[in-house]
Design goal:
By secondary structure, this protein is of the alpha/beta class. It has a single domain, classed as P-loop containing nucleotide triphosphate hydrolases (Rossmann fold). A five-stranded parallel sheet has the order 2-3-1-4-5, sandwiched between helices.
Amino acid sequence: MAGYKIITIGRQFGSGGHEIGQKLSEKLGIPLYDNRLVSMAAQELGVRKEDAERVDESSLNTFVSNYTVTPGMYMDFINATSYIQSFDEEVYRKQAEIIRKLAENGPCVIVGRCADYVLRDREDCINVFICADKEDRKKRIGKLYGLTDRKAAEKIRRTDRERRYYYEMHTGKEWGEISSHQMLFNVSLLGTDCIVDILVMMYNA
């Protein structure tokens, strides 16, 4: 094998996974792809970015859980759910196609979007999952969004639930489990810079 050239990052919300992706991109001098993939998929599908964002890593689960079905509205619910599911699959397939093309084009870091699963057959791919202790995540999200501890905890629970749903629906694997990823890193135990240094060393090995 000629060595690694792709790093994919799954992450708990508030763990610092995106920050790790940014630092890796800077240190290795390779591009980072994150929610830009949504814009790229929307452009190729000819739909608005806002519409694609509604099914990106989350919203089907939110839509279903927040939909109140009243008497006489069951068929509306079924039709709406079927449409969202179909659109979600279309966006996912387009993102997966883009991810494969990006991997073929050259070295890069990809955050989220089931990239580890999409590129599972590539031997030049390092796939990791970033986690952190709940208190550290609450502090990070509270500071980032200006939220109280309670609101930060609610946002973390909701976002993690949505990411888990999206990942497991498209991959059939357990989100955040060691059986689904090559490596798990706990930012609370190792620190962001240590994890970045480890991955840079592996990448350059």
